[in-house]
Amino acid sequence: MPKYITKNLFLSSLKCPTYGHLQQQQPTQPTTSPSDQLRIDEGIEVQERARNLFPTGVLVSGSNETCINRTRELLANPEVSTIFEATFQSGPYITKADILVRNNSKWKMIEIKSAVNQSDEHINDIAYTTFVALQSGLEISSCSLMLINKDYRLGMTDDNLLVEIDLSAKVSVRANEFCELSDSIAQVLSSEEQPAPDLKWECKHCEIFEECCGEGIDNDMRVLGRA
Q1: DSSP count for the chain of H helices, then E strands
Q2: What is residue 40's three-state secondary structure?
Q3: Which of 20, 123, 201, 208 is the most buried (most CB within 10 A)?
């Protein structure tokens, strides 16, 4: 098993145990196209501008171990009201919360996305972070998603750039599901034996399709009965 199971590795394994196992056994460095880099840069800018809305926020940085320990210190300090990149570990699982805002004895968790519409993927992202943080002992009051305001226009202030959507109910259900599945996913990732692939239509678009289960399958995948 890898020392840490990250959000990406957990969600990849949740979607396809075979892919998750291969990903952690043979991690690859993805190529970044100009459009990909633009999205990355936009995401970084949106995150920085979101932090501007919380001027007293404290950023956690450094190695995973340093961040975990620093997060514990900040959570225990009543004078700290907002934390950026708070880092949590539960067993092999590790995660970072974009923004935590103190709410009496609990914390509001905020995930930042450079998108205008929420998606199921966003809920999965917050749910994973919520699941790990809860398991590590954090008390969470609510979970929100910050998205780009559709009505934002160039020149407006950062207060108008983002809108916050409360997803606490949906995230709570999904986080509980992730908690129930966490042991089985950890077992898959710790095993030396690769799980047998479950061939389905979505496999066609996987970057390891040919190496995994695509050999000998024609391009239109008539073998799946979808032609």
Answers
A1: 8, 6
A2: helix
A3: 20
Q: What gap in Å lies between CA 153 and CA 187, rounded to an integer?
A: 48
Listed residue (50, 55, 42, 40) closest to 160, CA to CA: 50
Closest CA relative to residue 83, chosen from 54, 126, 52, 44 = 54
User: CA-CA distance, 24 to 17, in Å (whole number)?
Assistant: 11
User: Taking a C-beta distance cutoff of 8 angstroms, is the pair 148, 128 a contact?
Assistant: no
Q: How far is CA 63 from CA 69, 87, 91, 125, 209, in A?
A: 10, 10, 17, 21, 34
β-strand 93-103 against 106-112: which pairing, if any?
Answer: antiparallel
For 83-123, write each residue's pLDDT tens digit.
999 999 999 999 999 999 999 999 999 999 989 999 999 99
Q: How far apart are CA 71 and CA 75, in angstroms?
A: 6
CB 160 within 8 A of CB 152: yes
Inter-CA distances, 69 with 20, 63, 104, Å: 28, 10, 22
Annotated domain spans of the chain: 7-192, 197-227
Does the pLDDT of residue 67 top 90, yes or no? yes
pLDDT at 167 over 90: yes
pLDDT of residue 223: 47
**pTM check: above 0.70:** yes
Assess if CATH 3.30.70 describes domain 7-192. no
